[in-house]
Amino acid sequence: MLLTGCEPTHAGEGPKPVNCTVVVDGPEKTDAGERIEGRVRFRCGKPGAEKLSVKIRMEQKSGSSWKTVTSKSFTLKGSETVAAELKYQNRTVSIGCKLGTFRTVVDWSRVSRGDTESDNLTSGTMKDPCKSLFGDD
Coil, strand or helix: which one is 81? Predict the structure, then answer.
């Protein structure tokens, strides 16, 4: 049985804050093959978050530390944060292909019904994402 439009509540409480799922994907070569792209995927329950703030950055390893090579920030509201069941909205950052070890980092926060949730997510690393596995690049 499928129920829609219900707002979970407990005695004496108002509607619960919407839940948001945020996932960070490691850098990979774009389909066109000329750029490295890092992606964040997200979805919130209906009616969406009052505000979902997302800062996504791609970092490159430099010795024993990481340096940001590109970043973007997004602020989304309401229906912009909702996705179909088992689907996600997404936002990306990208740079031109170059050698090195890269990772994607996301800082996010969600405001819903007076409640704030936030987290920092870091992807796995990817070495030389534009280099072909077959040696033809």
Answer: helix
